[in-house]
């Protein structure tokens, strides 16, 4: 999406410049290693202090415990973090659930450090390819900034961390992590063949890089594009889905976004209907500045589920649009993604989406639409399974659980004691949310966790056995090949 100058910037540190533009295809307008030991909640309980937890000690109370609301002292823009009070968290252990399958990829993402652990040296090596360092000590979060992130990504991401601390008070281990907030992966495997790679957290990963995948900022909101927190957005999309039945939707493949951010998007535009041909694709260009002037009235995600088929195509790297597109109940067509985010690696071609190859995309789109229009029940069911994947596996509780397990596993690998860097500042609800106004503030408040969790995090699945993983990937490839060669088994 965002692709005009106004929405583009680059940050440079040292010799490297990372071009950062938002990848959003708006179309809509747009997953391991706890290994076998499960966390012992009770023994782990320590005194937590967290900014803003003016709490209320939660003894023997299995229910969600309300947490104090955001209190901003009137007119004071230099809000300071309040003193905090210990809080104890005793979730009801009897109500554990299993984590979704994609959590198994946490084990894979941390594998590069499995035998060595993570040393301070390794961590510091990631400094020049990170936007900031996040430190958590005794439940309090600190940030040391190195390079400004694009738009308000960093703010919404660290806000998400504060919510996690609030949901599971006292349960998040002390740690230091490096965070990259751009689009493109930064820890290239080929650069770290003789030396351990730095562990760098990032919104997406790719097979040739070691970036550790973490939920992107849009789960808490995307202020610049007026996109509300995921929980609200998915609710609205689902309401929108009820308004127009699959069979009554336009029988074409739809994409709307900013084509200028990536060549593959420009290629997609060539598949648009014209006097010469009709590949069954309907492609629309978005200019975000214009949409902004119209207050985003034409780019509401919930109004974009009017086609039977929806196309997902990457921008500079992964695009946050993917979850919105797939949640539409339309059959999603994914144009050969190169990048993945935390939840996508367990999605199965022809079960949750229809794979389209980058090379032959116009013909493949046409083939897929023709197939769907000739097999409406199957196409509709495919679309629905994709949506169900999003609804069931991406409940906000699971997003937090993913963060929880990833950070917990990471902390177990740390071979050094976290410390607060001199330049770091404490972050808390007050100093983040009080000094600001407008849409940013309303999104922060809307995505606030208002009580601790009544239940513990879901139970981590074990790592994949290497052979099983290989098989899984092979199966996926076979399915994709079936579509490419158009010899589809009769499913
Ligand atoms: C980051 O620093 C390391 C030395 O610690 C250096 O080898 C590497 O080239 C630097 N990377 C960038 C992108 O500047
Ligand atoms: C904001 O709060 C600080 C600390 O309490 C105080 O020193 C300052 O005068 C306040 N500023 C305003 C504008 O109220
Ligand atoms: C695709 O074709 C439609 C119908 O002609 C047109 O309205 C639309 O602007 C075209 N999209 C692009 C990106 O050119
Ligand atoms: C927390 O409360 C605020 C209002 O005080 C509300 O806007 C927000 O949506 C609530 N958070 C959640 C996750 O429901």
Low-confidence stretches: 1-62
Q: What structural class is derived from the secondary structure elements? A: alpha/beta
Helix content: 25-40%
- Total DSSP helices: 14
Radius of gyration (CA) equals: 22 Å
**Sheet with most strands: strand arrangement:** 8-6-5-3-4-15
Spell out the helices and strands N to C.
EEHHHEEHEEEEHEHEHEHEEEHHHEHHH
Notes on the structure:
With 491 residues, the chain is an alpha/beta fold. It is 30% helix and 14% strand. It contains 14 helices and 15 strands. It has helices at 41-44, 105-109, 120-125, 153-167, 230-243, 263-269, 288-293, 321-326, 361-374, 376-393, 396-413, 429-433, 438-446, 466-485, and strands at 8-13, 16-21, 132-137, 140-145, 175-179, 200-202, 205-206, 212-213, 250-257, 281-285, 307-312, 331-335, 339-340, 354-356, 425-427. It has a 6-stranded mixed sheet. Helix 8 (321-326) links the parallel strand 11 and strand 12. The protein is globular and about 65 Å long. The two termini are 35 Å apart. One 2-acetamido-2-deoxy-beta-D-glucopyranose binds at residues 14-16, 125, 128-129.
What are its keywords?
five-stranded parallel β-sheet, 15 strands, binds 2-acetamido-2-deoxy-beta-D-glucopyranose, 14 helices, 491 residues
What's this entry about, in short?
The protein has 491 residues and is α/β, with parallel strands linked by helices. The protein has helices at residues 41-44, 105-109, 120-125, 153-167, 230-243, 263-269, 288-293, 321-326, 361-374, 376-393, 396-413, 429-433, 438-446, 466-485, and strands at 8-13, 16-21, 132-137, 140-145, 175-179, 200-202, 205-206, 212-213, 250-257, 281-285, 307-312, 331-335, 339-340, 354-356, 425-427.
């Amino acid at each position: 999406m965002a692709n005009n100058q106004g929405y583009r910037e680059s940050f440079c540190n040292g010799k490297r410049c990372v071009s950062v533009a938002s990848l959003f295809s708006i179309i809509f307008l747009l997953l391991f290693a706890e290994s076998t030991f499960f966390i012992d909640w009770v023994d782990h309980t320590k005194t937590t202090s967290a900014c803003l937890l003016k709490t209320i000690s939660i003894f023997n109370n299995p229910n969600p415990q309300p947490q104090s609301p955001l209190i901003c002292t009137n007119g004071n823009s230099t809000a300071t973090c309040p003193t905090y009070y210990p809080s104890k968290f005793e979730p009801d252990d009897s109500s554990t659930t299993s984590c979704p399958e994609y959590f198994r990829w946490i084990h894979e993402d941390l594998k590069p450090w499995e035998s060595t652990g993570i040393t301070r040296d390794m961590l510091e090596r990631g400094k020049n390819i990170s936007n900031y360092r996040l430190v958590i000590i005794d439940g309090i979060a600190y940030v040391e900034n190195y390079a400004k992130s694009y738009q308000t990504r960093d703010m919404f991401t660290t806000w998400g961390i504060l919510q996690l601390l609030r949901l599971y008070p006292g349960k998040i281990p002390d740690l230091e992590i490096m965070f990259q907030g751009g689009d493109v992966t930064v820890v290239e495997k080929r650069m770290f063949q003789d030396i351990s790679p730095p562990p760098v957290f990032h919104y997406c990963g790719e097979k040739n890089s070691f970036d550790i995948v973490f939920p992107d900022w849009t789960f808490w909101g995307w202020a610049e594009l007026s996109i509300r927190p995921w929980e609200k957005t998915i609710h609205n999309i689902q309401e929108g889905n009820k308004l127009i039945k699959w069979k009554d939707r336009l029988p074409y493949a739809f994409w709307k976004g900013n084509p200028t951010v990536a060549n593959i998007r420009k290629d997609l535009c060539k598949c648009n209907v014209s006097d010469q041909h009709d590949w069954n694709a309907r492609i629309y260009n978005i200019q975000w500045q214009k949409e902004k002037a119209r207050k985003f009235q034409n780019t509401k995600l919930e109004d974009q589920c009017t086609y039977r088929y929806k196309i997902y195509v990457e921008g500079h790297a992964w695009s946050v649009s993917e979850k919105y597109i797939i949640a539409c109940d339309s059959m999603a067509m994914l144009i050969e993604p190169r990048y993945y985010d935390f939840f996508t690696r367990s999605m199965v071609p022809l079960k949750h989406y229809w794979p389209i190859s980058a090379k032959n995309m116009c013909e493949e789109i046409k083939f897929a639409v023709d197939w769907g229009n000739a097999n409406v029940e199957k196409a509709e069911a495919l679309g629905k399974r994709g949506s169900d994947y999003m609804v069931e596996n991406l409940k906000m509780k699971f997003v937090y659980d993913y963060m929880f397990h990833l950070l917990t596993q990471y902390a177990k690998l740390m071979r050094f004691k976290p410390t607060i860097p001199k330049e770091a500042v404490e972050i808390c609800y007050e100093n983040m949310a009080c000094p600001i106004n407008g849409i940013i503030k309303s999104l922060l408040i809307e995505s606030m966790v208002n009580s601790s969790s009544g239940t513990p995090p879901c139970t981590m699945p074990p790592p994949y056995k290497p052979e099983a993983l290989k098989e899984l990937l092979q199966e996926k490839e076979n399915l994709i090949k079936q579509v490419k060669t158009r010899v589809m088994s009769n499913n």
